[in-house]
Amino acid sequence: MPAGNFYVANVRDWVPPRRYDFVRTNLDYVPARYWEERVRRQWERLVARGGRLILCWYYSSGEAGTLQPSPAEVLRSLGFSVADTANALGTEVAWADKG
Question: What is the value of pTM for the model shown?
Fold first, then answer.
């Protein structure tokens, strides 16, 4: 793995050395009251122009849609235009593209 492609940091106060084309994040471990702050901070600090913010949930069998809104619903509720969504067993994904 090339050095400089991955960082271990606390996203809450990390100032990245650059912006990225793809930023993937989960909010499962973030209290709902902080979702907007977290998503907007990543959008503004981490996602490059022309890049993509990918929001993902992981579920145990049968949990999808029962514990929290879908990633697409979260993005839309924060005013983002959802470019697309995808689902796989135990996973829901939605993303917004930064023009």
Answer: 0.84
